[in-house]
Amino acid sequence: MKTIFITLLIVFSCFTVQAQVFPVENILVNGAVDNHINLVLIGDGYTAAEEGLFISDAQAFTTGIFNQTPFKEYKNFFNVYAIKVASNESGADHPGTATDVTEPYHPIQMVDTYFDSTFDSYNVHRLLTCNNLLVSQVVFANIPSYDQIVVLTNSPHYGGSGGAIAIGTTHSSGSEIALHEIGHSFSELKDEYWAGDYYAEEGINLTQNNDPTTVKWSNWMGVNGIGTYQHCCGETSGTWYKPHTTCKMEVLGNAFCSVCSDGIIEKIHDYVATIESFLPDNSITLEPDTYPIPFNLNVIYPMPNTLAISWHLNATTIAGNTDSLQLDENDFVMGSNTLTANVIDDSNLQAINDHTTIHVNTVTWTIDNNTLGIDLVAAFSATTTLKLYPNPASKAITISLETPQDESVALAIYALEGRLINKTNFTSNTAFVFPVNTLSSGTYVFTLTTENGTRIDKRVVID
């Protein structure tokens, strides 16, 4: 989940001696760094006397981000930190060398800043860059568990850039530029204006497939203006398609389109497990003859809550939509019992298709009911990913349940009223193709139950 930390530990360990430690201010803290997305804001072109201005700009930037979908719905999944780095002079370089405008577009100046923020990069006036290596070194030395870096440059002029690090200015559109660039660096979204053949490749919101029934965002087709819109202009642009015409990945000041929002949420779930902790855990001994026994989940909730929580005792559903449960002695069978709690995000901002996975966070308790009482044998949590596509389906559906270890999975298909239609078995961590051409059109519930008791219910549309 925090693979970036491991990579950076290898890459930057030799630089930590050189990188300076700076004061860090908490802008937004929702929980532990190892299970939240850590957004780090770092200033350039702010002098020591402008430290307060930087913090004010960082707070305004944070407010701007979390006022917009889907970040506002998933604000609880983020931490935001601001690193106070003082520059010798205020502002950013503008050498006046751009060839895409008649310079000087704004006053030519060269200033002494810590990260050397510079307009006119690669002869493009609005392309603002900085010393990314130095930024990475400083951030790693101060907040090694970071996930996304944004450089806030103390300049009133329009500009920015993306890549591994997003950079923006204090211009009125600066936060919009940075948010667009976060779309690139955090969620791997593509530009929805034509950026050139160099940037053309298959992505969440870019494809060469314009068939509305098989395009990777087919589940969104016809919803919120989503379609297959041809790119222009020049090079191979006519062979590429995007899902919208006014998404933030094309036009600043607009919302992220539904396809891009879906991709951002998927990335959030890649980083953050919705279940932070649970009780009882393996450090707790159940007291004999003390009932009822409480079971609790510490869950990170979206706003508004879109999580679907289900509880299953010995593969039978016993409760839903609650993060706590109490069980009595007569709820257990004699011998070994398995209690599982599953958490799935059921947000209507997601229309899962074959380029994404469904993240299922699970806690499993094994409980021994014997003549001496009830013992907690083991408890563990895991994140399971379910790939189920296409949905809707007409001929066949591919199901892949990724679990920590291979295990048998029982698949049962029910009509909405609860009637069993079919059942079969397959092995986790393999792609299982199930034909659906014999099923009548309609909505069905696909129920998957693993050997360890994890149960997942997913609605599937057959057309």
UniProtKB/TrEMBL annotation:
InterPro entries: MetalloPept_cat_dom_sf (IPR024079), Peptidase_M64_IgA (IPR019026), Secre_tail (IPR026444). Residues 388-462 form the Secretion system C-terminal sorting domain. Pfam families: Peptidase_M64 (PF09471), Por_Secre_tail (PF18962). Residues 1-19 form the signal peptide. GO terms for molecular function: metallopeptidase activity. Keywords: Signal. The keyword Metal-binding does not apply. NCBIfam families: Por_Secre_tail. This is T9SS type A sorting domain-containing protein.
